[in-house]
Amino acid sequence: MAYRVPSSIRVETDLTHEEKRLIEERAKLKAQLRQEYVRQLTDPHKHGSGGTLFDPQMMRLQAARSHSMIFEHFRPTPKGGLQFFCRNLLAHARPWIFCL
Fold first, then answer.
1. Closest CA to 23 of 36, 41, 10
2. What family is this (predicted)?
3. Tens digits of per-residue pLDDT, 7-63?
């Protein structure tokens, strides 16, 4: 089994001082964001239900994806129509078939 060198002991290779500074800044920002996420996730006074956080930026991204992509990639085909028929109409009619 190979031994992995911990990141604190890892030998620094061809990085300039500017690149090292940028890496350290990114690590600090990532740690701050992680700490804020955990703080919000474990806040007992948070109003609302559920264990997920509401991120408005992610909601905007998902809304933009769903509304712009639905009609862009949809093509009505006989196979799609048959799948719609089988999934929706037959699935709802199945309980009534056995009752008659």
1. 10
2. Belongs to the complex I NDUFB4 subunit family.
3. 665 566 778 889 889 999 999 999 999 998 888 877 777 766 666 777 788 888 888
